[in-house]
Amino acid sequence: MKICPQCKEQMPPLSKICPVCGYIEAGESSQEISLEDMIRQMEKQILALKKIGHPSVGNVLGGYAWLVYLVLMLQFTILGIFTESFFVGLISLLFLILFVFSLSKQLRGKTKKTKNNRAYNHLIAEFESTERQCLSHYGKNRTIQQQVEILSEEVNVESNRRKRVSFRQHLIGWIIIVVTLGITGSVITDLAKYANQEQEEHASPETSIEKSLKEGNHEEAIRLFLTQYMGEVGDYDYARLIVEQLLRDGKREDANAFVGQCTSLRYASDLKKLKKLLN
Question: Which of 36, 54, 137, 223 has the most Cβ atoms closer than 10 angstroms to its Cβ?
């Protein structure tokens, strides 16, 4: 039978709290934590939770950097296929290296976002453990129970605030990622199309000139020849096509003017051949 030293009333055999006056019996084990220590410990854990802070947009972007590098690598790889550029290939290789490094960092839990979440979850686990221990020893005391509930509610408020901020930061981060990759994808697609068109024109220059001549666009045919094909292999054949078409269309003055501009043919003798066509 235990007697409360404060009010001298009988205490329940297995209880450490007097049901009459609320006196709390100190633990006999030297390893047992006192009530004051547990309350103080929970307060410190709550303070530590607030000091950790919420994940920033930068933390979110860092957590998904591997995905950004992967998409950029694929985009520049596609551009490199169309342009056959060594420099573009080096950029693609650089993004591949960054992707492997970033993914490895993510899998090993070394990103700031992962570290922040791990530290927060660890403190939550410590608080819940201390809370259970406190309620197990002193939960029958209504005052103590209320005090623990207040601390627990403070943790819940902080947890809910963290979830709201985390959702907002993730949303902003994903918007930045999608917009950035959308812009780079659009630019790279346009560059790839332009490079493909350039290759097609150089692959079949005669067809381009013939197409312009058939459409009656003599100016475009002349422009293509003077800016891209004069001085290249087979330039006489392209120039001859233009002169013959101009003569067929009755534009002898334009033919004379065109021949007068053909001063940089691959072979000087080809200019004499063009002039003969005018006779």
Answer: 137
